[in-house]
């Protein structure tokens, strides 16, 4: 058996492996009938490549909700702070309030799934709370203007579809455990000033969680967050009357 033949045989085996069904599935791209039916990768970077906006997370729930003929009053669009809200106080998400938060998401991801997870549910109002992960740079660097543009696009899409808009401040955080050393307070404060001003200029309702939860230094008040970022149940209890007041104001 010559060395040249052995190399040729090994190359042929590799080519056969690359054409196997399992490998082919990993590399499926383009327009297909149901991307969510494919096995979802576990590695975060691969998830972004396959489903950047994580549209698969709520697709089935949304379909079931609409098939049952349910009426959505308010959809809460957000990141982990919104997602964990429903986990820590499920009783709050009743009477037509839907939690559509996804942990780790930035405004660019939320904008991509806004049609599926908000507009197509035909709610009376949407509560948008986003920006924490943009400040952290979870999907890469961005300017404040880009983040503001994503928030504005979500609000304007809602308005165009007759959905009333509640824009929430970014909750306080003196640091991000997953981004040690980052200076968070000035950026969060600047973004919140813009959100408040934008809401006022466009007739949207602004809800100020930051003011109710922040220390004078811009961090989260003691007892209101587990890690300085994600609210405890007590933290959500501070937020809930503010959210209800905003809902009453728009509806």
For the structure shown, list the relevant keywords.
Rossmann fold; 251 residues; 5 strands; globular
What is the mean pLDDT?
A: 89
**CATH homologous superfamily grouping:** SGNH hydrolase
Amino-to-carboxy terminus distance:
81 Å
Shape label: globular
Verbal overview:
It is a single chain. The protein has 251 residues and is an alpha/beta fold. It has eleven helices and five strands; from the N terminus they run ααααβαβαβααβαβαα. Mean pLDDT is 89; it is low at 10-25. A five-stranded parallel β-sheet has the order 2-1-3-4-5, sandwiched between helices. The protein has a single domain, classed as 3-Layer(aba) Sandwich (Rossmann fold).
Quickly describe the structure.
This protein is an alpha/beta fold and 251 residues long. 50% of the residues lie in helices and 9% in strands.
Give the helices and strands, then pairings.
Blueprint: H1 3-18, H2 21-26, H3 44-51, H4 56-67, E1 74-78, H5 80-88, E2 97-101, H6 107-117, E3 125-129, H7 132-136, H8 144-160, E4 164-168, H9 185-202, E5 205-207, H10 209-213, H11 233-250
Parallel strand pairs: 1-2, 1-3, 3-4, 4-5
Helix pairs in contact: 6-8, 8-9
């Amino acid at each position: 058996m010559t060395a040249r033949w052995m190399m040729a045989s090994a190359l042929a085996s590799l080519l056969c492996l690359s054409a196997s069904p399992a490998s082919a599935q990993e590399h499926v791209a383009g327009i297909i009938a149901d991307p969510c039916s494919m096995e979802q990768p576990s590695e975060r970077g691969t998830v972004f490549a396959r489903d950047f906006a994580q549209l698969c997370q709520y697709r089935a729930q949304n379909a079931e909700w609409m098939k049952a003929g349910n009426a959505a009053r308010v959809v809460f669009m957000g990141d982990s702070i919104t997602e964990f809200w429903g986990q820590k106080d499920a009783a709050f998400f009743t009477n037509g309030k839907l939690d559509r938060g996804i942990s780790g998401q930035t405004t660019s991801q939320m904008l991509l799934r806004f049609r599926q997870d908000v507009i197509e549910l035909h709610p009376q109002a949407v509560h948008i709370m986003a920006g924490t992960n943009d400040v952290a740079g979870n999907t890469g660097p961005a300017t404040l203007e880009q983040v503001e543009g994503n928030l504005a696009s979500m609000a304007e899409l809602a308005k165009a579809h007759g959905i009333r808009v509640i824009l929430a401040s970014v909750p306080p955080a003196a640091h991000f455990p997953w981004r040690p050393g980052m200076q968070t307070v000035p950026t969060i404060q600047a973004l919140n000033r813009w959100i408040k001003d934008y809401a006022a200029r466009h007739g949207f309702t602004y809800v100020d969680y930051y003011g109710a939860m922040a220390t004078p230094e811009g961090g989260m008040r003691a007892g209101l967050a587990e890690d300085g970022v994600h609210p405890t149940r007590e933290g959500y209890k501070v937020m809930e009357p503010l959210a209800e007041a905003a809902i009453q104001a728009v509806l």
